[in-house]
Predict the structure.
Amino acid sequence: MLEKIIDKRNYIILFIIIILILWILFFNKNEPYMETFNYYGETITFKVYDKVNHKKLTEDINNIYKKYENVNELSGKINEEENALIEYGKLAYYKTDGYIDITSGELVKHLEDAKEYDFKSDIENIIVEDNKLVNDINFNFDNIIGSYATNDVLYYFKQNNITKYIVNENGDVAVGEHYSNDKYTVSINNPNTDEIMDIVTIENKAIATRNTTDDFKSYMVNPKTSKKENKYDSVVVIANDNLTANMLANAIYLMDLEDGKKLIEQYPAEALWIDGEEITKTDSFDNYIQNN
């Protein structure tokens, strides 16, 4: 009788062990969160290594991006988020000496159609009273909308103690703390050969790249000359956050090299310019190169 009880107990223990193993294998996976979103003509991929509710995080990220879906059609009454975006656009204009101009909508449209247009900035005419735009402005937020909305998502991450992540927004990358006591690696490719030139290592940083392409891109439009310009094959900026990296990359892509260097010097940032076979770097850019 005692042997039967022991045998039964052993079967129960074995059954419990099997259930635990199955639960660990199939129900307790701590898989990283990974999701791709498509907004503003961009593909934005998030990979989060913190433990999160995958469904809720996807819903929350979508809700943040949806707030800015119709910003290029702004007129009349605007909401709080749209007003904040306008204020950031004005700030970017002054920080880049007019190389980023959110009032360049008509210019972008004309150049996209290969037509000439004598652009005059309307930045001083952006006036908001009682949550309404006083003047009719032809906005173009293409150069800032993606990074601005993504920055909103990263602020949400900070509020919710999400610290280990990597975000790829159409090739611009922002990273948080590394998940395995290391740093994230991002490759820099030669735009002429597509070969890897360097690999940079970053943590709690952002890297933005602008390349010359055959396609029309808003970042190629120079509001100061009213022309589409391909001054460099590529520019790369590393900064402390994605908004700054994006802003600086858009600006120095259009600037003369010396002016671009002076702008970068005003920020805790580093930059690289590729012009044919000539490669120019700021003094500390190589500090981010792997194995240096």
